[in-house]
Amino acid sequence: MYQKRPGIYMADWFDAKGRRHRKQFKSANEAKKYEHRETALAHAERATRELKLAGGSSAGAAKRPRARTESVTSSVAPAKGKLGVMIPGMGAVATTFVAGVEAIRKGLAKPIGSVTQMGTIRLGKRTEGRSPKIKEFVPLASLDDLVFTGWDIFEDNMYESASNAGVLEPRLLDQLKPFLSSVKPQAAVFDHNYVKKIDGPNVKKGKTKMDLAEQLRQDIRDFKKSSGASRLITMWCGSTESYIEPTAAHQSVKSFEKALRENEEKIAPSMIYAYASLMEGVPFANGAPNLTVDIPAMLELSRQNEAPICGKDFKTGQTLMKTVLAPAFKARLLGLSGWYSTNILGNRDGEVLDDPGSFKTKEESKLGVLDHILQPGLYPELYGNMFHKVRINYYPPRGDNKEGWDNIDIFGWLGYPMQIKVDFLCRDSILAAPIVLDLVLFLDLAQRTPELRGIGIQEWLSFYFKSPMTPPGLYPEHDLFIQLMKLKNTLRHLKGEELITHLGLEYYD
Ligand SMILES: NC(=O)c1ccc[n+]([C@@H]2O[C@H](COP(=O)([O-])OP(=O)(O)OC[C@H]3O[C@@H](n4cnc5c(N)ncnc54)[C@H](O)[C@@H]3O)[C@@H](O)[C@H]2O)c1
Description:
Blueprint: E1 2-5, E2 8-14, E3 20-25, H1 28-54, H2 58-63, E4 82-88, H3 92-105, H4 115-118, H5 134-137, E5 146-152, H6 158-165, H7 170-175, H8 177-181, E6 185-187, H9 209-227, E7 229-236, H10 253-261, H11 269-279, E8 284-286, H12 296-304, E9 309-311, H13 318-331, E10 335-345, H14 348-352, H15 356-374, H16 380-383, E11 387-394, E12 403-411, E13 417-425, H17 428-447, H18 450-453, H19 480-494
Helix pairs in contact: 3-6, 3-17, 9-10, 9-11, 10-12, 13-15
The structure holds nicotinamide-adenine-dinucleotide.
């Protein structure tokens, strides 16, 4: 869905035969609903067709040993040289990530929560006993090769910023002080209208948004030179920006560049960073729920310059739980009448989200999950009337240690009601940091892989996001375990290993 002109909204979807359609509406909500319905219908039609095609031949297919997909790893460039990680927004998440990498490099801590560092991948049959570590299976950059820079509206270096964030203990930070103090923020591209609760002095000036983009491009080239990095990645860890809908300015690279030159209001700062990165051929991941790269102009640029993109909004606490529980209800065909989620948190992110504009961006990202997993269109008796509410309350005493409560009203056999309560006392940035690390390493892998670098959106990284990006007309996959299977199967595919379907009939031959 996108906004064509003020008051005109376009539903935008692909039918089961892959034909693109658009229909005009007077409200964003109507357009969105129509697009979701048509997309779900197209998927159902496609799934039925595929089932019919598979029918009859499936038993035979199960017995036949499946040919391994052709290996493309031979053409994946090796992870040679340094990998530069550039982070707009050097706050709690960014500093917990960078401090963590340095602590792990020094042998002071373990990379807990990181799939790339601790995860294994099963290859072949369950009887083969082949389960290498992921980092030994695919050629990932080594932690020793990571170098960092960032941008922020505050002048604090990473040591000062990490100390202010209060996530990591001073005892650990002091051991990392010389390294963290050396990472200093470059002046940011910032617009107070997009983040109303904060303001800072370390901000670039320019006549137009295009001037600001040019300055960022220069920063990127300078960092590449000064750090000696052979490859770069940009990872948005900046504050959540105010909610905007896609407009005509976001529809193509041409209209986007015109809008940059004309200082169009609907070009958010995060989009300027994304544009600068992609123009420099640098992959971009979006850890916040802002639109940023989730617009046709960025997809076009990403494909054109072979710089992969992914987003949006790290899947850390409450939504992680939601995408584990909701698939379980659907798997057992338990109904859902309501899901009330509330959060209290007291870090700067919580303060920013106290503004209604930024909260709306986060709310949209958190709300989409249930509809996509439960598919009320396909299961109206179970999920047609569910009430879903998400609240975030700024509560300073908690700092980064968030509490997320969920009250879930479900119903079972004959409609009898039941309740589930979840109280997750989590640490936001501790959950986010390993996600940042994995995304950095996997995006770099994508950039070195001919089959992946020109496709734009890296949907196989949906596992890490609350609101995974997909091409127009394709609904996102939210179920955490399907997402993990997709990620691991992508890695198997890249190495020419058999994809794992969990069919398992071959064990009974
Ligand atoms: N921690 C989590 O679990 C989690 C999960 C999902 C998403 N996120 C998102 O990640 C982002 C970072 O979270 P955080 O807890 O580190 O927040 P934070 O407030 O500690 O850090 C954000 C930093 O971004 C800076 N900033 C804002 N606008 C900027 C701009 N235009 N250019 C450069 N810097 C800018 C701020 O000054 C701040 O230092 C937020 O958008 C948050 O919503 C966090």
